[in-house]
Records
---
Amino acid sequence: MGKFVAVTIVVIAIVSAIPILRHTWWMAPDISQHGAPIDEQMSETMAEAGISFLASQIILALFIWKFSGSRPSDPIKSFPGGAKTMVWAAFLLVGTEVLALGVFGVKAWANVYFAAPAANALPVQVQAGQFAFYFRYPGPDGSFGPLHPDLISEANANFFGIDVDHDPDSKDDIVTAEMAIPVNREIHLLMHAKDVGHSFFVPELRVQQDFVPGLDLSLHFTATKIGRYEIVCTQLCGLGHYNMKAYLSVMSQEDFDSWLKKEAALQ
Amino acid sequence: MHEMSPQPHVAHHVPPTGFIRKHIFSLDHKVIGKQYYGLALVAVLMGMVLSWLMRIHLAWTNYPIPGLHWLSNTGAPGNVMTPEYYLQLMTMHATLMVFFVLTTAPFAAFGNYFLPIQVGAEDMPFPHFNMMSFWVTFVGFLVLVASFFVSDGPTLGGWTQYAPLSAVGAVGGPGEGMGVVLWASSIAIFCVGQLLGSLNFITTTLDMRTRGMSMWRLPLSAWAWFITSCMGLTAFAVLMPACILLILDHVAGTSFFVPGNLVINDQLQPHSGGSTLLWQHLFWFFGHPEVYIAIVPGMGIVSHVLITNMRRPMLSHRVLIYSMGALAVLSYMVYGHHMFVSGMNPVSSLAFSFPTLIITIPSTIVVLIWLGSLYGAKLRINAASLFALGFISMFITGGVSGFFLAQPSIDIMLHATYFVVGHFHMVMGVAAMFGIFAGTYFWFPKMFGRMMNETLGKVHFWLSFVGAYAIFMPFHYLGLAGNVRRYQAFVIDYMQPLIPVHRFITVAALATGAAQLIFLYNLIHSRFWGQPASDNPWQATSLEWSTPTTPPPHNNFGDKLPEVYHDPYQYGVKSSMGDYVMQASPEQVPSEHDEA
């Protein structure tokens, strides 16, 4: 039976690795300027974790195969080098591996979080609420009007609680239910939670960031490929969580300008 | 030369005669251990049925599940689960499994039964606290289950109960009012039970060891329970006040976890001044050690079982203990990896990332010691050792996926996806369950005086081992493809091609779940009709196999406590007993493995 266990472990390990090697189910293609280091980091980690996984399972299987059939008269042997070898192996192999992953991973993380957005980045405000995203563009004046939570009203379609009568900066703000951005232009996303925690996840853009009530956060990214993508919520926010999504359209600058004009006319 | 322990203080209590004191409000650690095991068994059956319902719903969302409306008419009108009911069942599944199964069975159940015996004590030092520990935990369980019966059902906020959804009250959605209050009350009560238990475990280990039982002579299972109880004492002591604060936000008008200016259903909420991230810090300061509270006892049990079945000690007893200790210490320094994209300062994410990567070193040492110890062993294959070997395989698989989640940059892609679900189910779900199974097949003869059926045990292993991989490996693929967790249906366009994978997982989950009924049958049948067990059926060395009767008598060792003469795992020697010498045997045998 020990040999059967060993074969089963090896078969499971190999079968498990095949979809990974073939990328049967894999990350969506990257459309961001910052995403390449993240993908590289993923590939390197997959290679190192994959080798560790296969090697460990095969060694486990090998030893079960070899030593499950031992006879009572067989002498007990000790692994050459004993425990010291194992401790050194763990420190040297895994320690080096994880240190390398950690150090190189800093770059990918820093690209997203430590670099400041460019001065000419297009500001877009996104508000998450049960169970929809709304987006706000500052209009020709380039400034957002302040938010007034007491004015928020789904019924009156005042999703952000803006006061166009009293706040001059709000007069030209453009509020939409879909996000459109120009391709190859940096976006400075200003994130605001209306009610509970939500998240902003666009797999193709290589961004995921929680909305935190009481804490306005921001992200910046540049999309490099025209297309239509989905923004989904990944933070459990209530019964409609599964259905909380919006579309992100990445378009040429000309198309974006016309889209924005059209949306401004609808305000 | 071993340091001799002082004469232990003995917790005397006379054998009970009445039914209630003997079987219900028992002071006997062995009865309490069995009570914990029974509670875990009930909880795991409930949790498993809930997972079946969830899996069926995920695979065939609008398909009626016959009889489901009996569970909740409002939650499943026409036998079709509503979105909120899915989330409610999911939350209850996770809470039952994490708290009432993975904490109670390997730690509280086996630890209660065997820790005092393995240290050579008559009982724990505070038997009344021990009894309270179980009954308080049981009350916590009842409070949690009661939430099924309140008007809008249990909370839907997940076992992590992130604020402010969990703290704003009924306005947050179904179950977010009374459901959350009951959930938080249940967990706070549970924490009291585990704090009492941890105190007893620590004092038992430190103060109750019999003559000759130095700390280094403790079996690895005893060390694992001791280390786990140290974690429990600090982790549950944080979760309990956090839950109390959450309850206060509901019932006392406080705002610990809710900031101002929140608008729900067009209504400006009355809260102000709270912090949503505060809850996450408090929760995960408990939550990550909890992963090790679930898995470290399994490491100890599996080591103990494997050694007996390898007929040799581990390559190093002490290195394993140091590694488990390192895991425990580091577990408090890594919790922030659950919060990489939470809005926490991005520098903090890096600060939590490095310890998370470093914790793979002691984990790897443990695995390498297991593997290196298998080399040259005389491995016996039985149900207990199969589950122990399965544990190692699962622990490796669950461990390597931790490489990914330890890195903030990769977490951007994998956070809150099925990759995470696959990772923690492998490492703290399935691996921990395999540890429980290994312990059950191994210790059942001592606990009940009868052997479990080996053939059924092996069938149970094969179906569980292959089934667990069939369920949880695909979770990783789904996560890589961006499949978000905690969705009751997959209406997002890019997730449509993933639905067939979910259907495969559901079929595997139903089949693997059904295989657990073989275990249940084996457990019940063997309890009453199994072959009578001898005092030491596995030719093992530690003190639980030196009791004068099987099951052990009320005071464990009869008139005289044993004296310990050896390290815990004297296998591969030539003695009058065979290839082993028991800890309580004065027979002196030379051994090359005598490390301590």
---
Amino acid sequence: MTIASRKRQIVWIVALVLGLAVFAALTLRVHMVRNDVLRADITIVALKKQKQLLETEFQARASQHQLARWNRVDLGFVAPRADQYLDGRKQLAMLGQPVAPGAPSPIRVASLDAGEGGAFAQREMVSPISGKPITLASLDAPEGAGDVFADAFGDFLVEASPIRQAKAQTGPVLLAESVE
Amino acid sequence: MNSGARALGAEQGSLFDTVPELLGAASRARAPSAPKAGASIPFVQPYSASAETPARPYAVPESLPAMRERLLNTARTRVLFLVFAFAAFALLAIVQIAWLGMDGSARPNRPHAGSLVPPRGEIVDRNGAPLAVAYPAYSLYFYPQAMDGTGTNPLVRDPADLARELKAIFPDMDQEAVAAKLAAGKGGFLRQRILPEEANEVWALGEVALQSPAILDRHYPQGRLASHVIGGVADDGETQTGTFGMEQALDKQLSDPDLRATPSALSIDVRVQGALEDEMNRGMKLADADGAAGVVLDVDTGEVIAMASLPDFDPNRVAQEDAANTTNRVTFLRGELGSVFKPVTVAAALDAGEITDLTAVWDASPVETGGKVFEDYEDKGSRLTIPEALAYSSNTVTMRVAGKVGGKQLHKVWLDLGLNRPVDIEISGTSKPFFPKAPWSDMTTKIAAYGHGFNVTPLHLANAYAAMVNGGIMRPATLKKVEPGQAVPGTRVFKASTSQKMRQLLRLVAKHGTGRNANAAATGFRVGGKTGSAEKLINGRYSSTRIIATFAAAFPMDRPRYVVVVALDEPKVTHAMAGRTAYFNAAPIVGNLIRRAGPMLGVRPDNTRDVDVSDLEYLLKVKR
């Protein structure tokens, strides 16, 4: 055998070993992925079981008897009367017709613009009587007084103060706005 | 470049014609880097090399042809070996693919998904709301081997001390018995169903042998709701077996490993069931009644939408004091239900052609039969029309109508309505009615006409009313959900025209007669129905104070879809109830229920629609 042929043999063997190594690595990889899938599946099954558990708890807490009890004691809802049903879009649209002259003013319900930077959020606070912008008395106080006040009363102030924007924010955010 | 290999193949015939090609392909790929043409096949190298390079002095001990032969053989053997190896691999792969393809038991992709299948199938209502589920409940288990594997020394502290500490967590625990159990060192349950916080407290004791495994238990999330329908199971630790109710009726399906993954749907609607139980509870308390039975039936399919029997029990914890309440009053407790059967008599007469004119006037004076005189509960005049007789619940007119129909025909109608046999329903716990044998005497016929002399259950009554208003078809009641179009055909009991007349008559009774309270409570639902207040037979004598008050109704009367029957057992005159008859107690329950449950059942209240009663309504306004 010549050196060249031996070299070639070695090359072949190396190629074979390389192939085997790649095959082994691939097999390992496949098993790894499969194990990952199995583990994910176990997690899914466990979560589903947990979900069943929670659902059962919800169902037990919101059973028909419990709902009826709550309704009787707290809510007092009754089934709608026949005249409270609407027959279709036309009848629904009739509800939005402009009020006739002399009719009692419609009941307005509070609405809330909770959108970020909505018109409501940017509007300045005005006096309901004069229509002029008003400033909170506490904000006229010397620099730093608001902080001291806020520190002392903290969230209580935020909760209790009638003059604040009705935004779904709590704690620091509101506090920062009211003392700005 | 592979000329050597090709030359070999050519010289040795075509045995390996393809192999040199194969090898050639491999060598071709390396050709650019190969130093010499034809040098890339290692096992033919010596021959071709010797032809092109100077032979080494030590390399030629044998003759050239012999060497050539030997090398050739080696090459062939190697090629053969390679081919076989490839073929074997290919075969293996093909066999495996075939195996996987044909054998269904190949390894599952999700081996753990099976643990989501409950040990016993779920029971759900018609809309899929769970009524009975498998719920993993914690239990307290003593496992002596947990400590050292042998169980010789299972506990850290003294068994008596530990029992005392356990008693602090579970105050109702028998301390001595538990101490003895712990001392004996034998494993077993110390307690079934403990709360998670209790399990935590036990865990905090630090005893390894006290474990709290979560064991799948049967749980009824709606609690007392529809407890009589669902029933219960007996658990022997291994399997759960239904003992009564639908748990028993569906036992096979619920415990079958192939079927239990899919929940079994009942015909019950939990919302309606909840409303029925709530209204019955309220009405029962207001009237201070001993018990109540109520059922809502779909007239076109026979599905039981709601079925309630009060007092009820909690299936999650069947206590000793509740044992008597497991009787289902709707299917088991029978009694003379009284005047609610008057419309059935009228329907039988209409069907037989004995009543052709509903405006005709009947004699309402006392009836004498079998040596006894029967008169009306309340005198409404001596001459009444059929609508009046029903609205004022006249016994005498109904008896005369029955007399005209005859015992044979009335008996046949009663048989057609299934009043002589246990009611058709899946659950056990039905009772055989008390039913007089044919031929019926004049007196039997006449008292049967107003619901006396035979004992049936409220479900019998609901079935009869369904047949009366749905066009005349009698269907068995069912507690299994019926898919659209799958309802049993049923048998015809009344003509469709009779059914049409009965809708009018029942609507009139609810509008102007004894069912007024139901109509008032459910305005717009076009309720029709009839009251019945039958005195109970106590020791062979009718008691005037112990009655069964029943209201049987159907709605909406212009196209009846549901029948509602509510019966109260021994209602009393209370501060809330001015009287004990069904007019005061049962009718408002039904009215309130229809108002609540009607929209859930797809019936919209509408004040502008109704069954046309204009041809009869005037009869009730005319004072004779």
